[in-house]
Design a protein that fits this description.
single chain, about 190 residues, alpha/beta, Rossmann fold, globular, Phosphopantetheine adenylyltransferase, coenzyme a biosynthesis, EC 2.7.7.3, magnesium
Length: about 190
């Protein structure tokens, strides 16, 4: 059992919505661990735009063809969930120094609750440093073109949720002049 535990990581979040920053981190986590569970949180102090089922379904669509990556909803304490799933690693992403303080506190609390569950931090790829689910929702709600910042299925769902038609008004599109090195969206 202990040999298997280090090969499985849990990457938790609300994923409301899933962004390309999340996708990048999950893929990179999969390069380190044999399996990564994308654990979609049911219990959140935030009021999600998408239901738990919608968030799980969108993530499942994104990772459908990715071996070793599964998506599951979870509720309750993250460390309890990780333990139930046989994982002793929680994978977390850091965008900036401002993320570190909060993530550090969470990691220490999780360690206090379950000493054998470790938190592993990965730095976000530089091209995703500025995005968050909150910023994505704010831009999308005002008609901003967030294409390429979220997977295509999430992009479509955001457009539907906010009632914006296709195709987008080119005047609302984000500039992509400096984004030539960004990978295409899924």
């Amino acid at each position: 059992m202990d040999d298997e535990r280090g090969k499985l990581a849990v990457y938790p979040g609300t994923f409301d919505p899933l962004t390309m920053g999340h996708v990048s981190l999950i893929r990179r986590g999969r390069q380190i661990f044999d399996r990564v569970i994308v654990a979609v949180a049911m219990d959140t102090p935030k009021t999600p735009l998408f239901s738990l089922d919608e968030r799980v379904r969108m993530a499942e669509e994104v990772f459908a063809d990715h071996e070793g990556i599964t998506v599951e909803p979870f509720s309750g304490l993250l460390v309890d969930y990780a333990e139930r799933r046989g994982a002793n690693v929680i994978l977390r992403g850091l965008r900036a120094v401002s993320d570190f303080e909060y993530e550090f506190q969470l990691a220490l609390m999780n360690r206090k609750l379950k000493r054998h569950v470790q938190t592993v931090f990965l730095m976000t790829d530089y091209q995703w440093l500025y995005i968050s689910s909150t910023i994505i929702k704010a831009a999308a709600s005002l008609g901003g073109d967030i294409k390429g910042l979220v997977p295509d299925n999430v992009y479509r769902r955001l457009r539907e949720k906010y009632g914006y038609p296709y195709p987008l008004n080119p005047g609302l599109a984000l500039s992509t002049e400096a984004d030539e090195d960004l990978p295409p969206s899924l």
